[in-house]
Amino acid sequence: MATSHESTTSDSAVPTPKSEVPSIADEKSSNNPQGGGQQNGTDDETPLSLFLSTFKAARTQWVARQVIIMISLLFRLGVGLGPYSGFSDPPMHGDFEAQRHWMEITYHLPMKEWYWYDLQYWGLDYPPLTAYHSWVMGAIGSRIKSSWFALDTSRGCEDINLKSYMRNTVIISELLIYIPAVSMFVRWTIKNQKLSPLYHSIASAAILLQPALILIDHGHFQYNAVMLGLSLLAITNILMDKLVVGSVFFVLSLCFKQMALYYSIPIFAYLLGICIFPRLNLPRFISLALSVLVTFALVFAPIILTSAGGPKGPYDQVVQILIRIFPFARGLWEDKVANIWCTLNTFVKLKVLYSSDTLQRLSLVTTFVSVLPAFILLFLYPRKKALIWGVSASAWAFFLFSFQVHEKSVLLPLLPVTLQLAGDPGVNAQSYIYWINNVAVFSLWPLLKRDGLVLQYFVISFLANWLMASFKKLPDSLLGKVTIILSYAGIVGLHAMEFLIEPPSQYPDLWVLGNITLSFGCFAIFLLWNYVQLYRACMQSPPNDGVRT
Amino acid sequence: MALKCSLLPALRYAVVASICFKLLLYPAYRSTDFEVHRNWLAITYSKPLKEWYYEDTSEWTLDYPPFFAYFEWFLSQFAQYADPGMLVVGNLDYASTATVYFQRTSEIVSELVLVYGLQNYFSLLPDNNRQPAYAIAMSIYFSPGFLIIDNIHFQYNAMLFGILVWSLVAMKQQRMLRGAVLFAVLLCFKHIFLYLAPAYFAYLLRVYCLDLSALSRNSLMGVIRWKNSILLGLSVISVALIAFSPFIYLGQVPQIFKRLFPFSRGLCHAYWAPNVWALYSATDRVLFLVFRKVLKNPVYADDMASLTRGLVGISSFNVLPDVQPRTTFLLTTFYQLIALIPMIITPTHDKFVGALALCGFASFLFGWHVHEKAILLVIVPFSFLALKDRRYLTPFYLLTVSGYISLFPLIFTSPEAPIKYLYTFAWIFAFYNVFDGLAPVRTTHRVFLLDRIAHVFLLGFIPLLLFVALYDKFAIFSGLEFLRLMLISTYCSLGIIGSFVGFSWLYLFT
């Protein structure tokens, strides 16, 4: 204790973040203290790295990590002070009311009624794990104030304390699942790539302060971080060769929100690949298959068992859950979203020209075709370095081509893309990753504006970019530079026009259409770039890079 | 006096990050102080100067000295472009979005004065010794006190403390005249800084106006530095003249003073500031309950005229003798005088800052009608001494933790509650660790036992806060609503008194 101050007092007040960190006292000391060829990505000083340099003494790095988590929580709480979706917008309100309503019905109704009760008013349309989560939150909330979740009479409740309670449940769910998942992933990456322990805080901050997730979960109001956190736990465990645990977490993620399906194909391809190459590993395959089946069975068991013998038996329950969570009847898209269908529709009236069935088949085929390369690559070359690129490629493909996509689903491809920052991918890749994050936040603008989160949108976007000094980073290739600069110009231009000019009366949605067209273009370019990265990672990594055989 | 345009990167980054967070607090809860300041904007904008200190449409009359009134007038010149509605005197409780954004923004911009002061403090020190100064400057800039009082509750303290820091830096640079003028300006902004005035007065007298070395030369006239004294007197008087001259001309000075010093208020504020009188009141309440419930003494059977029910004017006690304003004044003066003695004997800058902190302590602990917010008057000067050596850390932790937690009851709405808890906890956690690594060790004279007790005391805040948060769930306490606030203020006052004792010991005897 007495000696610890010496290492810090000798530093200047503004030490460069590049100085080597003696990691003797750190728990990561067993790793290469040379930092494995320091990260070229952090060469230029960012506000974040400067801030963290205060904590560069090995003893205080643990402090830095906790402070980063607290700061990211504070910004979430700050965004939470703003309005939420559907605030004072009767009769249906918005996602906030949907989540509250699910807490109300799961708490008050027997399980067998959950997926059947008054479906016109925010009927439950997420898988059972969300229902259980709602039940717990509803039970705790009812203890605090029963009127918040009283059956039927609580609809549209806008008590300020209810808002606080709901906001806190999002924070706590994230703190329990997403944040540990990020820490675990970053720790694994740093160990795997032999990066300096100081980089842990930088990487965590880069991921935790991702603007889109903060704005959607804590502003608009949803529990995406739970699903993303479970998926991230799955990916991390798979990377750590804990395959069974990983597949269990992935099934849990699917059972929380069906959107995790966007990730399923590459994860399946990777797991299948390492069961077959370099040689067939049947016990592994069987244990994985069993763990998936058992987890699904366990998650569905309570609903199935409690409904046995009733008028709506186990079979009806399962069918009803599937119908509810895969709403094919709701059309190709609902709201404006930056995918191919909505963008094309601006120019060709798809819904008029083709029947819903044709469009469904069309979307199924295009999604399949666009995901196929990820499947084949990861199946043939199941490399750890490639897994996350594959996951993001598949999620982008699903987002751009599949059926019934919401603008909020852009969070799914964004997560694996942002995870790449933890591995210090270099300035070139960083520039694309920050860029696509910004485009994604921009694509959420119409939604956030409707929610009244304008201030929060600008502040959080600015904060994330400023902390990482992301505007100073441009890709190596000229084409990349031009694309990024032009798209930023387009974003600024669209914001300016929306602010200054009324759209012509025959096109009231002109700015929104501009938004989704621009965003779609950027997303599509990014998908191509992502595929290049995936291909390179598959080809360059040595086979069998660390997977136990 | 040229403004340094470029901020040090570390400070600049801190400012940007903190402004980002403060922008998110725009929709947060606002206390009546928000309406107070809106009303002052309206008064200074729409009324002629001669009516400023007479206007009483709103109950929140102008009761700050003239510079603050001029400041509000200055802001109102911009406010008219944001929303003229806020400038109508009769628009009570007017809070349109533009009004909120304008006032919150004006507060954030005014904080730059604090940043400027800290930047000056920072650049005083040689490059190789900046780490402690950096830590201290950051601890002040990120203080939960400013966040809670200024950015949520709504006041302009950061700006005023910026002037104080600026003045302290000038004093440290031996620019006594500048320091004195800045402090005089500060007093004309907010008269609560009178709490610190004795230290300023004595220090300036000792090092600037007197030359005690002349005594050894047996030249009594030489003891007084005539030129300095006259210069100092003229400058301070001219500051006061600039502030008050329009009102002197109008003959309104007595009216201003009536507004500035409303002696009709009670000993304790609605929520007791954690000082000696909080302990005194708590003792009184406990004795009262004992007499009524246990001894069934008929004298005490009447209903409790609670000190904590929000009535500002109460100063009577049920069991213990009443406290007169004179008593509090004498006690305050006594402890302030004691604090001045070591400074007069060895007039160093550190002793001066210590005397400032102790003057703040004395006024806070023994003063009449003290607000809990006044704890910043102690914390800010003390911060500059916190890293002097290790022994100062324990009283510093006691003071900051107790002081900041005592501000919690200011923010009682549920959306902001997690922010106040987490922000304060993060501050304590980060700066505890940073300061711990920076304070020079001095192994002699360390009383480890006292450190242990202090740490146990600080940990006691965790169950206390949990209990207070869940207070409503305990049915036995229904009807004893005052107990909740009493618990916080008495526990915090123990911490602050402990800090006072520890710091006085270090200051007086080392």
Q: Which range does the strand content of chain A fall in?
A: under 5%
Tally of contiguous helical segments of chain A: 23
Q: Count of DSSP E strands of chain B?
A: 0
Quantity of strands of chain A, as a count: 0
Mean pLDDT of chain B: 88
Query: Ends of chain A: how far apart?
Result: 45 Å
Report the mean per-residue pLDDT of chain A as an integer. Answer: 87
Structural class of chain A: mainly alpha
Features:
heterodimer; A: 549 residues; mainly alpha; 23 helices; 66% helix; disordered N terminus; B: 510 residues; 22 helices; 64% helix
Question: What order do the helices and strands come in, and which of them pair?
Answer:
The complex is a heterodimer of chains A (549) and B (510).
Chain A: H1 4-9, H2 47-53, H3 58-80, H4 95-108, H5 128-144, H6 160-193, H7 198-208, H8 211-221, H9 224-239, H10 243-256, H11 261-276, H12 282-307, H13 314-325, H14 340-347, H15 350-353, H16 356-380, H17 384-401, H18 411-419, H19 427-443, H20 445-451, H21 454-467, H22 478-500, H23 510-540
Chain B: H1 9-24, H2 32-46, H3 66-82, H4 97-110, H5 112-124, H6 130-141, H7 144-153, H8 157-172, H9 176-189, H10 197-209, H11 213-216, H12 226-250, H13 253-260, H14 276-294, H15 325-345, H16 349-366, H17 376-383, H18 393-405, H19 417-438, H20 448-459, H21 461-469, H22 482-509
Helix pairs in contact in B: 2-3, 3-9, 5-6, 5-8, 6-19, 8-9, 9-12, 10-15, 10-16, 14-22, 15-16, 16-17, 16-22, 17-18, 18-19, 18-20, 18-22, 21-22
Description of the molecule:
- The complex is a heterodimer of chains A (549) and B (510).
- Chain A is mostly helical.
- Chain A has a domain at 161-280 and 327-540.
- Chain A has 23 helices and no strands.
- The radius of gyration of chain A is 24 Å and the shape is globular.
- The relative contact order of chain A is 0.10.
- Chain B is mostly helical and 510 residues long.
- Chain B has a domain at 325-509.
- Chain B contains 22 helices and no strands.
- Chain B is globular.
- The two termini of chain B are 36 Å apart.
- In chain B, 44% of the residues are buried.
- Residues 1-6 and 301-315 of chain B have low confidence and may be disordered.
- At the A-B interface, helix 1, helix 2, helix 3, helix 6 and helix 21 of A face helix 1, helix 6 and helix 19 of B.
